[in-house]
Amino acid sequence: MKICALCGKNIETDKYFSRKTVCPECGGDLHICLNCGFYSVTAHNKCLEPKAEFQRTRDKANFCDYFVFIEGSLKRKKTGEQALSEKTDDTRKRFDALFKK
User: Fold this and answer.
1) Burial zone of 30 (CB within 10 Å; 0-12 exposed, 13-18 middle, 19+ buried)
2) Which of 16, 19, 26, 36 would disulfide-bridge 7, Cβ 3.0–4.6 Å?
C-alpha cells in the first residue's frame, strides 16, 4: 500500500510513474524524498542511498534516479523536529520515572 506523505491518503500508481505525477487527493507531487524508501531524517543528506545527489527540498518533485516509492505506514515520515521532540519527551519521562520515590 502506497501512502502520500503529504496528505496520508492511499495511492494507486503504476510501477513507473512520471516525476510530474501528483496525488489525486491533495495535488502534491509524488516523486519526492518524503515518499522514498531511502529517506531518513538521521542519515547524511537525509538519504540512505550514498550515491544520491543532495536534494534541497524534500517535499517537491525531483530528478533522483534512486527513488523507490515506500510501501506501508507513515510512521517514519516525521520531520526531524517532530522526531527529536518525541525522543526528548520519552527521555524526560524515563528520567523522571527513574528518580521518583
Assistant:
1) buried
2) 26
